Amino acid sequence: MADAQPAKPAAPAPAAKLDERRKMELQNTLNRISIIAGIFDTRMGSVNCKPFHAIRELMDIYIAGAIRALSGGRDYLDNGIELKDEERAGVETLILKIYGDVAKKDAPAEKA
What we know:
Layout: H1 20-44, H2 50-71, H3 76-79, H4 85-99, H5 102-106
């Protein structure tokens, strides 16, 4: 029997066209998010902790997805973002870099 592959998350349903007010709210939020990410980048420069630096990479992936959603007329706050396959793989790698392999840590130790 073939190994079961994890199901890919379903793509979000097409969103209704954004009205100009909501689009401006989303753009302003995206601007603030980008500023915070820039400040985080500046402040973390003196921190010698590679897992902590990976958090900034996660921010970049989120911001890129939010930009794509907004330019496609989708509300990234209410409907989330869609990740490209390489971004999804990158997120998984970054989570492992930040938290380690939680599955291994939670697995029962083998007896000698």
